[in-house]
């Protein structure tokens, strides 16, 4: 796979900022920890989209330890509440137009409280909707609740009064299903060329829960070459989105300096 990528990387006309977003933390904890071992060993930041209602004490403790031990390499933000589909028909969506804004707001806030209960101020103020889809109302609600960014698919329909967005470009699992490592490499190459041309950051989306050992090995092989490539800048979402805004007390906090157990400041 990496043989296909190396010439693409070498030929990029401009550096590309890349982030890795892994979804569904709370499910398949063993697979998640195996993935974190891969990215941390490579020194590449990973942003976990965590399902608040699915987190348990063991995983929460493990994530706290990893974040505190390597704050620039592991970060967590909210991924829905329960990862439940509420649409009676059509494409799956937890925060879709089938539910009122009031009900959505309750779930968003409940998820935020749950996640803060597990991880304290380590939680980043971004939101990834399950299935990468949400209604226009959801973005407005997120902003009113203090969330500071939204991450969906690149090309998703714009939301009104939009929050800043940091979209993903590559769905690792889909490409792997379609054509294994070569299909992933081709998708990565195509996205790299596009992001080198427009200057936007490239988002790689993973789903640890369905990644087999072979896929983790393929990812490790890519990172072994790409993590240090001079044309790539691997970044956490926090670095790409900037620091969270000033908290109500007027201080500008670094999430990395916050003590475990502190309440969320967004
Ligand atoms: Zn998900």
Helix content: 40-55%
Helical stretch tally: 8
Q: Give me the Rg, rounded.
A: 18 Å
Overall strand count: 8
CATH class: Alpha Beta
Report the CATH superfamily.
Answer: Glycoside hydrolase/deacetylase
Mean pLDDT, as a whole number?
90
Which secondary-structure class do the elements indicate? alpha/beta
CATH overall fold name:
TIM Barrel
The end-to-end span amounts to 41 Å
Q: Which regions contain 5 or more consecutive residues with pLDDT less than 50?
A: 245-264
Give the DSSP E fraction (strand runs of 2 or more residues): 5-15%
Categorize the overall geometry: globular
- Biggest sheet, in brief? 8 strands, parallel
Second-tier CATH architecture: Alpha-Beta Barrel
SSE sequence, one letter per element: HEHEHEHEHEEHEHEH
Q: In the residues, how many domains can be counted? A: 1
**Attached small molecules:** zinc ion
In short:
The protein is α/β, with parallel strands linked by helices and 266 residues long. It is 42% helix and 14% strand.
Please give a handful of descriptors for the protein shown:
alpha/beta; disordered C terminus; 8 helices; 8-stranded parallel beta sheet; binds zinc ion; TIM Barrel; 266 residues
Descriptive notes:
InterPro entries: Glyco_hydro/deAcase_b/a-brl. This is Polysaccharide deacetylase. Residues 241-266 are annotated as: Disordered. There is one protein chain. Strands 1, 2, 3, 4, 5, 6, 7 and 8 form an eight-stranded parallel beta sheet that branches. Residues 245-264 have low confidence and may be disordered. The relative contact order is 0.21. This protein is of the alpha/beta class. The chain is built from eight helices and eight strands, in the order αβαβαβαβαββαβαβα. It has one domain: TIM Barrel, CATH 3.20.20. The chain has helices spanning 2-11, 29-42, 57-69, 101-119, 136-144, 172-198, 213-226, 237-241; strands at residues 16-25, 46-50, 74-78, 123-127, 149-150, 170-171, 202-206, 232-234. It is globular and about 50 Å long. Helix 1 (2-11) packs parallel to helix 6 (172-198), helix 2 runs parallel beside helix 7 (213-226) and helix 4 (101-119) crosses helix 5. The longest helix has 27 residues, at 172-198. The site of zinc ion has 5 residues, from strand 1.
